[in-house]
């Protein structure tokens, strides 16, 4: 079971000018004290075409994390416009907020971001070279896309891990393991086909 | 009989391993495989029962789903009270769930609105002990214990009142344990395992009662589960998969002598699950036929791998009904409704079937009283068969009942205190943490949060804790997911304003005890959702000017890039390798650095791959890497499995070892019990003597004689207590050696070994069953009908044995003995049952039962006593004749004042002051000791002194006015005394 669950992410100062920093107010709940820090990261997707243009805006360690509810504000500078393809400067892109524990990503919150000129004049006739100072960033805060991954919260499994004498049998018995992994099962399993 | 297959009860096609109907019949739980985790779902029962409800869109079908289990859930079971749900799975964990009732429907952060959980079930305990998949869990009658069994060959008994305490681990099976059932009377628990045995364990000492192997000799370990069941009348235990003459059966095991003469025959493949109807039935009385009292019978459902279900009545030789091919795959679990007329069956094929019987088919269910009467007539009174109402009035016949009653009372008290505190704080529960509103916190969070740099120069934020959380504490139920959508936030707000936040559950066996005062702040802090939803609203509000953005997003030209983004939302970034890296937690930071370097190295290659290619290409490379990863994982697990094999043998060895040790264990436990209450203080314990005599009183002449181990009867050494009162003798024998004795004209008490204290009347009648002291006796005292026991752990108790009341309850001497190597030099118990301790440093304290305080009544070093000179006020005749407890503890030399006055020349005013203060002390001490004689004496002295020294009118008035207050228990002359002043 995940030890950390995110209760809410509030996007602060939204919409805001393109150059202003990102601010996420993150509240999460931790079911038991964590031995290690959480690592949070804001990734700005420069272009849908390629991960090449991803920018890790910032990453922070968050800790210590005792059991309970916690909140913090994660602030990161705006993306470097130089690294964004000109064709992708205006329009919809994505900002990702990821959380990892012991090097394993267990949570990913994605937001659509719309960069546009608030000025109707500019919107109608956008300058050929994007004018980032005029762009407004609007994060679609109301519909985050949350993906959770199962990770090992007790750290990577040790080579001499807890003994599992019969794991194979049980898994196979449920049809989850490789069929017929346990030779003794073969006969009965085949009977099912009758 | 009606048969229904509610198709909407499914785990998206994944197998359902377990089903259980809530005791109140309104919902049921299923457990099984989820997407990439185990899954527990709680369903609404009414759409199953009524077609109208099924069609009604407004009636929710799914109430809650929990995917917290990391792997397949094998068993879900409601507690008998319906308060908790226990689930056990392949992740080796048992989770105990409790409903958070105060909070309305909500969504998980980020999930779309329609998946909202109607009910909130929170994991309140995670039970970790098993080293393999948990196959079955079972609550004992009355929910005192929770048992779980696992492929690690063990059964673990958990203390359901105090999770995660383990009461016992039952070892003895040599194969995967796949089913559990409690005896309805709570005397046994039975387990069935792949080792071709069914074992019955006693709940008294958690030892093996019997192991039944014969019917299972021919069995192969091929069923997923072996859910056996005990009949509600307790007479029969029916096993899952057994073999008789190479045919699969369900073996009937009689409680009487564990005989195995009968079985349920007919299934073509192994029986996976047997479930008795909770009701006992009797024949339906037909109107015409004269009532011929028929024997009550039970009803039992049997499910098998052959995909068929049979229902049997124990009064019939043939099954009541057999339903063939009910499912596409093996039946996994069966659950009866509490009224005994409905049955839910689940299958490996991921579907569920509901069978509805009529009373004509099954018979008339016996009422609970009738059932209880059957139990009582068969087994005598026992805890499990008592109904709640009976229990409170029943004569307590065994210690378990007493324990149960105590627990109930304790719970009520706890609840009272909690609820009173709750109501007290309810009004101020408005999103406040440490007196600061959440809004304020949020405003300043960025400024206030602590940010540091780690050694490697990275930012590290210390998160602000907004609510503490004791793991395992039931208060975790306070926490819940916060609703996301604005409308939900609105409902949250309204529900808050109507103060629904109070914990509703009234009979939670929780641990809100005094040891956890922190739960209150937690409760207050849990108002956080208000703040959150408020901010949510405000965020929404601020974003309204840009409400056009969703529209922009849906323009067709923009859809394509969004699709491209989709993968970004769900796939792990390459920056963090998904497979658990082989780094150890301790060197994590170093490793993380390395990892980053690694990432940097990796990245360019990735980029090379993708830069020239389209999006698709990336997918290809990703998936290939993914599958590779999977492969690696599989290899890993296979290796693990292989490794696991030989270890099985070593486990077996440890089992045989541990079997030998229970005796040693128990003695150890005892020893622990003895030493625990005495962390620092240890008073001397009287050693056992061969014989001793004790003079109790001289008038009337009374003495007691003790002779230890004077005779042996049947291997037991007996000790004799003899009492002689003015020539009249009585004697009695005790089974353990007498360590010390004490007596008064009213009672005789003796403290024996094993911390037993026995009390007899002066005529030799035993007044009480032996009292079990918390620790060995140090000193024993009697005065009148009061008995005082000072234990080695320096706790003091005083009882009034005639009125059967406690005067002082296990009061610790820590406060008066602390800090030095003082000892108790003299102990006194006044006629009014007030204990007085004279300590080696010359101080004497009495314990005031009404105030529950230790009061200093005498101090040899008291400078006041040395300076005070009141001889002039002493009445000539009864100068020193006043006797009483105060005089005893202070000793006769307490009037050394005169010498003191000679030794030190003190100004008169000062001496006057000290004398007055001393006299006041004496008056107060006499009052606290309830020694009326001495009170009178000292008050008189005080009054005389006041008069003699000619204090001012006001002063005297003030002081005498104060002494007008009289203790009701003190005799009347006092009024006169104060009058004379």
TrEMBL record, chain A:
It holds the Pfam family ASF1_hist_chap. It comes from the Eukaryota. GO terms for cellular component: chromatin; nucleus. InterPro entries: ASF1-like, ASF1-like_sf. GO terms for biological process: DNA replication-dependent chromatin assembly. Gene3D superfamilies: Histone chaperone ASF1-like. It is found in: Nucleus. Keywords: Chaperone, Chromatin regulator, Nucleus, Transcription, Transcription regulation. The keyword Transcription applies. PANTHER family: ANTI-SILENCING PROTEIN 1 (PTHR12040), HISTONE CHAPERONE ASF1B (PTHR12040:SF22). Belongs to the ASF1 family. This is Histone chaperone ASF1B isoform X2. The lineage of its organism: Eukaryota, Metazoa, Chordata, Craniata, Vertebrata. The gene is ASF1B.
UniProtKB/TrEMBL annotation, chain B:
Residues 604-619 have a biased composition (Basic and acidic residues). InterPro entries: Beta-prop_CAF1B_HIR1, HIR1-like, HIRA-like_C, WD40/YVTN_repeat-like_dom_sf, WD40_repeat_dom_sf, WD40_rpt. The keyword Repeat applies. Its main location: nucleus. Residues 1-212 form the CAF1B/HIR1 beta-propeller domain. Residues 541-557 have a biased composition (Low complexity). Residues 405-430, 498-559, 604-625, 957-981 are annotated as: Disordered. It is found in: Nucleus. Required for replication-independent chromatin assembly and for the periodic repression of histone gene transcription during the cell cycle. SMART domains: WD40. Belongs to the WD repeat HIR1 family. It comes from the Eukaryota. Residues 764-952 form the Protein HIRA-like C-terminal domain. This is Protein HIRA. Keywords: Chromatin regulator, Nucleus, Repeat, Repressor, Transcription, Transcription regulation, WD repeat. Residues 413-428, 498-518 have a biased composition (Polar residues). The keyword Transcription regulation applies. The gene is LOC103111492. WD repeats lie at residues 66-98, 127-159, 170-201.
